[in-house]
Amino acid sequence: MFRRKRPPRIPGLSINRLIPNILTLLALCAGLTSIRFAVHDMWKEAVVATVLAAILDGLDGRVARLLQGTSKFGAELDSLSDFVSFGVAPAMVLYFWTMRSAGGFGWALVLLFSVCCALRLARFNTMIGEPDLPPYAYNFFTGVPAPAAAGMVLLPLALSIQFGGGFFDQPMVVAVFLMGVSFLMVSKIPTFSFKKVRIPHKWVLPILLVVGLVAAFLVTEPWLTLSALGGAYLVSIPFAVRSFARLKSQAEASNVTEGGPSE
């Protein structure tokens, strides 16, 4: 009997390798949709779309590593998506919300935020895989990452939704946030990176309880909770600077001890 020849297998990508890129594209669509909501004065929906884009952006990299679907194409796509979702979309939302009433000054600050986001992402891409990065620096970002910057710069809008207009919707107040967050993005201030943090076993259950509590407050008091989370991240920056300096000094002291006194 003659065995039936099997047809040749068609080369292609596994669906597992496409899932991270699909998540990245969904994040991009969410960011662009926030601009559409802002054009129609749907401010709550615009903030929600930005938050959704940040969640999807946080998932795509982790899913890629879990499914072994990391690629250079995915990294470039993720960077472009971040620029649109967290560099362009929040700036346009704030412009349509209140900064257009400031005329050319408002538009200049919107451009400043987008340009600083592009510079921050370009610097991050060039730092990937640096061989001379010290061990203590792996748990820190240089400057504020783009998703966190988008959340902080939208704080006035979230606070205005929670407490009403009159103060947080003033162009000068929003201008302070735009300039401050723009500086934080391009600065060399160390900020916490939670990607490689290992949680001790005794803290797993308490952290899960806190996550559940935050999720409950997001349902019952979404704008107050989002404002509190953004404020908490802002407060964490000085602690990150202090922790980075302490680890750096310990590493330098350890190197001096191992190498002995120098002449």
Topology:
Layout: H1 15-39, H2 43-66, H3 72-97, H4 104-127, E1 140-142, H5 146-153, H6 155-163, H7 171-186, E2 190-192, H8 201-220, H9 222-259
Antiparallel strand pairs: 1-2
Class per helix and strand makeup: mainly alpha
Order of helices and strands: HHHHEHHHEHH
Q: Please, what is the average pLDDT?
A: 86
Low-confidence stretches: none
Strand order of the largest sheet: 1-2
β-strand number: 2
Instruction: Give the radius of gyration.
Output: 22 Å
How many alpha or pi helices? 9
Explain how this protein is built.
The chain has nine helices and two strands. It is mainly α and 263 residues long. It has a two-stranded antiparallel ribbon. The longest helix is centred in the last third of the chain and has 38 residues, at 222-259.
List keywords for this structure.
263 residues, mainly alpha, two-stranded antiparallel ribbon, globular
